[in-house]
Amino acid sequence: MSRRWVIVGVVVLAFVITAYMLLRSRASLPASTQKTVVFASIVPQEYFVQRIGGERVEVQALVEWGQILTFDNRGWVGSFGCGM
Predict the structure, then answer these.
(1) Is residue 84 part of a domain?
(2) Do residues 57 and 49 touch, judged by C-beta distance below 8 A?
(3) In the chain, how many domains are there?
(4) Cα–Cα distance, 51 to 57 (Å, whole number)
(5) Is residue 83 included in any domain, yes or no?
């Protein structure tokens, strides 16, 4: 197994554990009508968090479909119009 996939697996596992712990701790609180706002880096993560959180969360992706954003030796370059 390549090192890249191990890193991806660890990151996904950490994300799932964090989301589970957050939602479990919120389940013991009294129900409120206000949703928790969650920001995900990319659209696939947005979908994943929405499936876990259901009606209790409002999820928004920082990088939407079709938005180009890459990292090179100059920093973040993308549809923001400049290197950051």
Answers:
(1) no
(2) yes
(3) 1
(4) 10
(5) no
